[in-house]
């Protein structure tokens, strides 16, 4: 019986789990949930994920989008979704570095009792300074992310997946 919980399950043993072999365990979740956990996809996509300069971001986003298309050709929804998540993460991380040179968005470390929870945890957001190189990298990734997200076959498979598995 499919689960009605659509959130990503962080309780699974992802280090020892191959979701290509057990796809029924995969949950789409929201945004980038699980992007650095789900194997074997993480290992297949992560080596290509880079955004330091627009040239690197273009090459990276095109390679990851090609992986998206390769997964699509194989009917591998999880692979498509993971490639989409990496494209989204390319956008969000490049955007963070465009806004904050160090990549740190908030002042100070995360308090121990707040680790693993979303948001700023009451910490002050650091001032922004626009880095046009990282901003361009973010724009490049965002364009490829939209191509993946709006792909008609991806949308169809995502809806079917969520109806079947939650």
Secondary structure elements and pairings:
Blueprint: H1 41-45, H2 54-74, H3 77-99, H4 132-149, H5 152-165
Helix pairs in contact: 2-3, 2-4, 3-4
How many β-strand stretches? 0
Give the low-confidence spans: 1-5
Category from helices, strands and their pairing: mainly alpha
Total helices: the number is 5
N/C terminus separation: 10 Å
Strand content: under 5%
Radius of gyration: 17 Å
What is the H/E string?
HHHHH
Q: What is the average per-residue confidence, as pLDDT, rounded to a whole number? A: 87
Give the % helix. Answer: 40-55%
Query: Biggest β-sheet: count, sense, barrel?
Result: none
The best one-word shape is globular
Protein name: DUF4385 family protein
Region (Disordered): 100-132
Pfam family, one: DUF4385
Organism: Spirosoma arboris
Overview of the molecule:
With 166 residues, the chain is mainly α. The protein has a domain at 49-105 and 128-166. 49% of the residues lie in helices and 0% in strands. The chain has helices spanning 41-45, 54-74, 77-99, 132-149, 152-165. Helix 2 packs parallel to helix 4 (132-149) and helix 3 (77-99) runs antiparallel to helix 4 (132-149). The protein starts with 40 loop residues before the first helix and ends with a helix. The relative contact order is 0.17.
